[in-house]
Amino acid sequence: MRPSNTTERRQEIAEALRRVMATEGYERATIQRIAHEAGLAPGLVHYHFDSKAEILALLVETLVGRFESRIARRTKGSESALDQLDRLLEGLLARGDDEDLESVRCWTLVGAQAVKDADVRVLYERHLATLTDRIAALVVTACHDEGKSGEGARAMAGALVALTEGYFALAAASPRLVATGSASAMAKRTLRGLLAGQPRKETS
């Protein structure tokens, strides 16, 4: 089914916020600036959204969708849990033709806004919790595949998510601190180190 004109216009406005945020930050992304970027009158932006915060909420959904699509392309056809974890980390961190540094910068700014805004924090935490749960489930399977306990899966997943968010922040603020192409490789090495430290699974 073709999206309605209202849905398309709302998405256009959210995309305009994404572009403005990537270069000027969230605070400077006024309704007037967003409207100008979208090629619309400010009144039309107000017609579709009650506030800038509402536009940001849609943008968060859009950014999550972009990341999920990249992960899905990378993980398609993977079989073992370890392979899925490797490809998931690549989907989040690897460079390539489908990289989207503008969205990474915006996501980092969303995280910064979440520190100050409880509503944004709910959206931010929801995505990270879902990602953590997904990684933890795969870690449990990867551990069991190697005859190891999966009791520390949640902590390992949290560490990997924290590492990813840290790389995102560096990519946005100080990209020269990270050697080109090293982020996903280091994340996968960290994963293997965490798995290696897991105790053997007890057998009855």
Description:
With 204 residues, the chain is mainly alpha-helical. The chain has 2 domains: 1-49, Homeodomain-like (Arc Repressor Mutant, subunit A, Orthogonal Bundle), CATH 1.10.10; 53-196, Tetracycline Repressor, domain 2, CATH 1.10.357. It has 9 helices and no strands. Helix 5 (81-93) runs antiparallel to helix 7 (118-145). The chain is elongated, with a radius of gyration of 19 Å. The model has no long low-confidence stretch (mean pLDDT 92).
From the spread of the alpha carbons, the general shape counts as: elongated
Q: Report how far the terminal alpha carbons are from each other.
A: 54 Å
Q: What CATH architecture of the largest domain would you give?
A: Orthogonal Bundle
Specify the CATH class of the largest domain.
Mainly Alpha
Q: How helix-rich are the residues, as a percent range?
A: over 70%
Uncertain segments of ≥5 residues (pLDDT<50)? Answer: none
Report on the biggest sheet. Answer: none
Number of strands: 0
CATH level-four homologous superfamily name of the largest domain: Tetracycline Repressor, domain 2
Helical/strand content category: mainly alpha
Strand content: under 5%
